[in-house]
Write a structure and sequence with these properties.
single chain; little secondary structure; binds zinc ion
């Protein structure tokens, strides 16, 4: 299986090897302007990073409606 080498920051939200997408903060005062994420549940990619008050992306396999395991 081919894997791409990528560099992730601590601010990124990547778990496992699902396809990634990039969130971009629209607030010019946001500390984190761009961040990588691979939650399958994101719909709005222009919101703030969790460190800037945004919602934490839902991690596949740890969905709250499954009991958080
Ligand atoms: Zn996302």
């Amino acid at each position: 299986m081919k894997r791409e080498v990528i560099t992730l920051d601590k601010s990124d939200r990547v778990v496992g090897d699902r396809p990634m997408h990039i969130h971009r903060a629209t607030d010019p005062s946001a500390k984190i302007k761009e961040w990588v994420c691979n939650s399958p549940y994101c719909e709005d990619l222009s919101g703030p990073h969790p460190d800037d008050g945004g919602a934490e992306p839902i991690v596949q396999g740890r969905e709250p409606w499954r009991g958080g395991r």
